[in-house]
# Entry
Amino acid sequence: MSNISFYRFIMPRKVTFSLSLSDRLICQNIVERGDNWRERQRAHTLIRLDDGLSMQKVADEVGIDVRTVGLTRIHWLANGINALKDALRPGAPKKIRPDQVDKLKESASLELLTAKELLVKHIEGGGTPVHLNTIKCALKRANFVWKHTRSSLKKTR
# Structure
């Protein structure tokens, strides 16, 4: 008998998992009232594993891959309650520091300036040279609104 056919008939290993009562209550609270859908999904996964369901049944019920169920379990065993939170995602570093954004917001709220004038003021204030769109996006994230002003009335155009 070859090794491949032998492994085909091996039953999957039963993975036991148990939560303490306080951890289960925390997970139930997150499932019911959590803000982040990923945290709710991870907490629901852990609760269903604690109920004694297999990883495949939990994956089918929650709607995720079996490997994700296994990773959620492994992260929980390693990090505890902190495993439910999202990790920081990689990406490009911010081009404008938060203190520079605060200065831009202050300049934009004190006087009416165009984006080009704000960029010049940013660079003169010791900020790094950035693209004009970076200034606009930073202020849009700070809930500033950019509107085009017309120099003529509609009926005189």
In short: The first helix runs from residue 3 to 8. The CA atoms of residues 27 and 43 lie 5 Å apart. The chain has a mean pLDDT of 86. Helices lie at 3-8, 21-33, 37-50, 55-62, 66-79, 98-110, 115-124, 132-141.
